[in-house]
Structure formats: structure tokens, C-alpha cells
User: Fold this.
Amino acid sequence: MSTGPSERPAPSGLREVFAARLREALHTGGERRGGVSPTRRAYREAACLLARFDPRELRLPDEKHATGRAVLELVDDCTTLGMQDQAGWALKAEVREEALGGLAGPEAARRLLAANIGQLPAEPGPERFALAQLFGTPLAIDRLTAGELADALQAVLWLSRVPGMTGLPDTGRLQRALERARLLEPLERLVRRPFQGRAAELAELRAYIALPGAAAPPGPPAAPPGGPGLVPAMVVHGPGGMGKSTLLAKFLLDSVHDPAGGIPFAYIDFERPTLSVHEPITLIAEAARQLGIQYPAHRAELDALAEECQQVARSQREGQERVTQLHELAATRAVLGRSYSQQFQSAATDRETGLVRRVGEVLRRAVAEVKSRPDEPDPPFVMAVDTFEEAQYRGSPALGRMVAVYVALQSAYPRLRAVFSGRAPVEHPAKRVESLDIELGELDPQAAVSLLASCGVDDPEVARELAARVGGHPLSLKLAARAATLAGLAGEPTGELIRSLPERRREVFRRVDQLLVQGILYDRILSHIADEDVRRLAHPGLVLRVITPEIIRDVLAGPCGLDVPGPERARELFDELSRLDMVEPAAPDAVRYRGDVRAIMLRLPGGDRTAVMREVERRAVAHYAARDGLEARAEEIYHRLRLDENPRSVEERWLPGVERFLAGAGQEMSPRAAGLLTARLGGGAPDHVAAGADQEDWERIAAQEVEDLLAQGFATAALERIGRRRPWTPCSPLHALYAEALSRVGRRDEARRAVADALVPAGRAGCGERRLELLLLSARLAQEDGDPVHADRALRAAEDVAVGLGQDLEAMGALLARARLTADEGRAEPATGRQLAERLKKLPDDVLSERPVLVRAVASQIYAQAPGALEHAVEVVGLPSDDETLDALGAAMRRATRRQPALLGKVMEILDEAAGPSRPEPGAAPTSIAGILRLARDRGTLDALARRLLAVPDRSGEIVAGVAAAMGVGSGARTTTGAHVRAAPAPEERHARERRDDR
Assistant:
């Protein structure tokens, strides 16, 4: 039998076969009994400096050829790595450590690695670093990439276990170098190709941060450290594909590696899944984490701040969900929702600005410690924020909170300089100064030629002629380079490609020229697809967001004039299409065109292909309409909108949950279609989308913006925004918002008239939910004006409307509104409480669980009248889990145990049980009530704790009131004493309270 390599089983297969045979022969159930034989130990040592190896090729130093015995000897000592056809073995961690410690010394390690030099991978790995170290030629750490540093660190950790090994690099230094390299890795990926042009923009950015030797920054002069002036942020903007992110990366890398001295920085890319543009607290956490890597002496403090930010983020997410739920019901929107929205935004801003100031203060101390002399000015701290577009719209709460974070951080570290990559600066009432901006235009001719050369256009004359036709748009130049390369491979003269491109015209036509050029270049690239059938699919397929063999057969084949008789031919075409460099995997057995390809091609007129592409979209609608699931429904809606169907008929196909599949799709549609998506998905609408949207969609877009402005306290700006497009439809959300805005600017009579004027048309149009919202708003405004008669009349009408709607939760919300408003006037109505208790008791648990915020608000309102309401709510929806909940619960427990010391033992028993049996090591266990409550929350025992607290015999009623207050956090709940539930204290106040608790 041949033993050539081609006939050998895969290593993983060998391992399984031999393991089974060995265990059977040695009658063991696993590991071999007894000590390790000398041969087995020798093979362990031979493999202990290899990250992975082929056991058939493993050699001992005295073996001239591999014997394959390692397969038998190491079968129980290894794990299998990689796929079946490329599998390798690796020693288990404990076996490797034992083998390394058993080596005779560095010379033995050297001989073992040298004997197995053929096992070393071609690319760098820990083995090569170990070999270099053992032979006295270690590599310079400061020149290694992140991957190489990781390998070097692994090699050093291995070699440190070899007896007698000396001269190894410090592992702490290696770890710090690795972390810093990983910090810079995203930036280095963006500038992997040689950076071309942009000298003026780079100079402007350097001047902005006032690096040594730079000119004075543009715009207002920077304030000196500690000065009162606010230096505006810089916004880099320009069309997609123009190189904003690359410019940002080049600027940051140059600044960090500046010979005159590096600078502290934070690079925030909101495309990372751990960061959210809607949660500025995640930006603060990431900045603290990155600064901790740059200033190791302050790492622990900055990491603790980052962890605190993550805890705050979790609380804020719960608060945001509370806002969402209170706005979803008409009955809670006007009385509870908008007031809590403003409270939430204010509290979030306070928490974020407080935390970012603390980050700035740590940075200032860290910088002071490394300065060469005390009077040396602080270096600029550059915060570079990439992909910020999603938050850049008028009224954006994220943008408003980002402004507050920027101002707070600059007050703590005056040399903060922030650079944002996104859209052109937008107006926002929170902005204190106008942003500076750099608009990226086309590359200059020389830079355009250089970019073509770096992309493979070797002939300078061809590069110059292409640049003259294509212009300086980076994406167009890369397309031209690709088209020229394909033409060269096909033996076509490049002159034909150049002549197919239009000559450059005046600036007014430049954008049209770019679209035309990019379309021609893509057509040239598509024309080089070898398979004619795939070539016929390629262009019409661009309208599809995902392509599978089934879609090729059912959707694409017919319009493209192809005969695809069965799944085999569809699979063949799919496999060929998948090999194109303009497509990428989307899912198993599914591909999609790259985003940059579709973004360009869908903007172009289809010419002769328009009819084919529209037929593809019609078939896509039929294909997805016949299928179940949210993703299929989202694709159906997408193609209906692309076909410019009436938004109202498309909306009838909407299902809750399709939103996540349609995010960002509005850029590929007409303004009218994009208007529906923006109205449904939220966020800002560009002016051309707002102008082209149907009236109903425009009203919903404007309503969201006005809600956001009111939540931030900008009522005047909300009024200005609301009046741009009238008359409104009878069911418009803008009627109630207009009255709300008038009320907040002090025009209360006008507000009440606006509500009255809107009620009649809403009733005639059959807008029951809108009428319910307006009636409750009318009651609230009347109650605030001291008009209980009108308030009572409006409340009773609202209850009738809610009952008429046949929606139990809306009816419960209307009753809750009456209970709250009458309680605020000091004339609580027991009958209302009883009705609420009855509804809470009768509604099925699965219905209640869909509205946890409403259920908690009702239970906290009626707990004194309905003793079982709190237990029921804890059982069905549980307590909220944000910090405010823990504060309310902890405060009640402290009050109760102070008034009745006899309760302390029982309360501490409950707390100890909730904290769990496995306590942390001594000194790390929380001892304060707040600390134990946080531990209970993290371990999922907070609800069980609340149930046990409700059973404590507390005569004062403080504990039950505390559970009620915790239950009603964020809903304006009242305790039995009539005091509103307090907002969460600032972190400093919370920490001080915990220290008092400890004492």
C-alpha cells in the first residue's frame, strides 16, 4: 500500500481512528493510566513550541525522518484545529505547560524547533518569534504589527516556562504594545494603500488642533487652558466614496506618530457594534478605554469609568424603552409620555456630562505626569468620530447630547479638539458655536494619477488620460483602474476605454458627469464577465438586495431571457455569479452586490434595461409576497417602494419588526418612497425627501422631530418647525404637539384653543386614538390652569372614547391618567383606583406583559387600595432594572430599618439570599444596600427579592411604598406620602450614600 501524502487520511480523522483503537487496546475510557512514557514525553516536548502541527510529520531531534509515531503517542494530549481537510493538532494547554517546564533548557528548545522547522507556517507565527529569540536575533517590538505582537507575546509566554531561559522581552511591555497596536489597527486598515493628495485638508486639520509648527487654526482662536472660550468642532463632509474616513485615519496616524511628540486621541467609529450613535455614553466608555491603553498608570481608573459608563448605558436603554412604551399608547402619551421624555433626556445629559468630565480630569492628571516640565502646555486631545451621519439631523437628541458632552469635556480638558466625519453641519438649538467644516472635493490631477498608479495602472500616459476623463473622484478612479486592468487582461487597447468616457465639462455638469462616468465604468467591468448568461444576469440583478439560486430561477431568469429549467442550472449560475469581485456573501447560499456598487448603479438611468429591471422588481414582489417571515415581507415592501407604489397601499403590508431589514434603504428610492420609510423608521429626513413625501408621511416625520425638540426642552424651535406645511390632516399627530409646544412657551390660552379646534375634525374623521390623546391633553392643560370642571369633563369623554375603541390597554391608560391628574389636584378618587385594580386583575397576563411600563405605573398608583397589585405586577412584568429603581428600593429599605431596627436582620437575610451563595473573595463583596441590590440585579434575583420584601411585617409601610416607588420609576408615581419618586442621584451622590451605608 502506498504511503504517499495524497493517500493519507486527514490528521483529524487519524486522531479519531487511533484514539478509538488505542483506548480499546489499552481498555481505557479516556486518558491512559499510569505515568507518561519517555517516548510520549519526548513527542510532547517536540510539539510544545508549535502552535499547530501535523502529527505524521513531527520529529524528535535524533530522528532523520518522521516516523508517524506521534499520532499514537499524542492522541490524548491534543485538540484538533481547522477544517477537516486542513486540520492540524495542538497540545492541550496543561500538557504544553508541563512539557515546556520539563525541557532541559534553551538549547533543548532550540534543537526541538530546528528539527521541526518544516512544520512552521509560511506566515509569521509564535514559532518564528521563538526561533529568533532562541537564536539571539529577536525582532524590534516597535516595528511589529498587532498580529505579530500577539505572536511575539505568545512566544515569550511559552519561552518564559523553559528552565534557564533569559533575555526575554518584558511581557507587560509587549502587552501594552499589543493593545496600542490594536488601537491603531482600524486606522491602518483604512490607509493600507498609499495615501494620495489632500495636502490642503491635512494642513487645515493640523492647524485646527494646533500641533507644533502648524499655522493658526481657522475660525475663532482656541482658548488657552482654563480659558472660557469654546473651540468649535470640525466636520469633514463630502459625497460617499470621497475618502472622508481615509483622511481621518491619515490625519490621526500622522498626529500620533508626530516626531515632535504624539498626542492623546480617541477614534470612535459608530459602525462598530459596541457603539451606538444614539447612545453618547458608549462614546465616553470607548474614549476612556482607549485613553487607559495610552496612559497605563491610569488604566485602572479609566477602565472603572468605562465600566461605569456601560452600567449607565444599560439603565439608559431601559429608560429609552420606557419612553417608547409611554408614547405608543394614546392614553399615556400626553399625560405621562412627554413629561418623562424630557426627564429622561435631562437625566441622560447630566449623567453623560458628569462622566465625561471625570474622564477629562483623569486625562489632565495623566498628561501632567508625562510632561517634561510643569509649564509645558498640554497636548491637544483629538477625538475623531467617524460615520456620524445618522445623528446629524435637526432636533436629533443624540446630537444635542453630543454637544453637551463636547462642551463638558472641553471644560475639563480645554485642549480637546473634535473632528467628525459625516454630513455637512446641521443646525441644532443645542449648538453654542458654529462648527468649522472641511468639504472634500475631488483629488487634484497629480493625486488622481498617483491613485490610478497605486491601483495598477502602470502606464503614466494612460493614467494621465484616464484622470483627465474621469476626474478626481476616488471611487471613479478606482473603477477606472479596475476597468483598465480588465481591458489589459482581455488584450483590449486602453484607448477604447478612454474614448468611451465623456470629456469633462463645466463645474455645473460635474455631478452628472461623475454619475455617467461611474455607470460607463461599471458597464465596462460587467462586460468582461466571461460567462454570457452570468453577464446577462449581472446588471438587472443590481436591483435585488440578495440573490440566491431560487431567486435566479424565479425572479431573474425570465426578464433576462434565460432558460433555467431546474435547480441544478440555477446553482451553476449562482456559483459563477458568486465569484465576481463586486458581490459578497450575505448568508449561506446567498450573495449581494457590494454597497458601493449598488449605491452608484441604482442612481443611474437604466436606459434600455429599465423595463427589464422593473420586471425583475415586479417578480421580486410576487416572490416575496408568497413567503412568510419578516425578512421576506421587508424585501416585498422594499421592491414595492422601488416601483413607486402608493405609500398608503404599501403601508398595509407593514409588519412590526420589518424595520431592522429596511434601515438605510431610503437612499435607493424616490423621495416619496423614502418619506414613508423615514416616517416609519424615525430619524431625520433630508430636505428633498421631506419635500417629496406625502402629506401624511411628512406630518409623521415632522412630529418625530418636534417630539425630539420638546424632549430636549426646545419648545420655541419646535414651534418654528411645526408650522412649515399646512393644513394638516385631521388625524395628524401635529395637532397635539402644536398645543404642547404653545403650552411650554407660556401661550396657554392658545394651546387650549388649539386642542379644542382639533377635536371636532378628529372625531369626524374617525380618529379615535388621536381624539383620546387630545382629550387627555385638554384635561391636563385644564388641570394645570386650575379648571377642574373642564378637566373632569375631558377625562370622562376620554374614558368613553377609550371604551369605544375596544382596546383594554388604552382604557386602562385613560383611567390611569384620571387617577394621576386628580391626585395632582389633591382630590384622589377611590372609585378610579378600584376600576384600575379590577382591570389589572381581569386582563390576561400575556396581554399585560406586552405593556410592562403601563402595568408598573398602574400597580404603583393603586397599591394602597389593591394590596395584591404589586405582587401581581412583580410576577407578570417584574421590576425595572435601571439605577433609579435600585435607588428607590434601597432608600425605602434604609428608612424602614432606621425606624424599626428589629427589621434589619430580616432585610439583611433577604439581601444576602438575593446576592447568591457564591460570594466574591473577601474584600470584594458589596456591603452597602445599593451594592447588594446591583448584585441581585446582575444575578437576576431582584424580582424574587421584591416579592420577599412585600411579605416583611413592616408597620411603617415604608418597604411596600419603596417597592411601589421602584415599580413606578419614570412614570410619575406617588408614594403613600404623596411625594413623587425622585430621579436618580448623580454618581457622586450615589457613591457618598453607599459610603454612609457602609458606616
About this structure: Strands lie at 78-81, 88-91, 234-237, 265-269, 381-386, 416-422, 436-439, 583-587, 590-593.
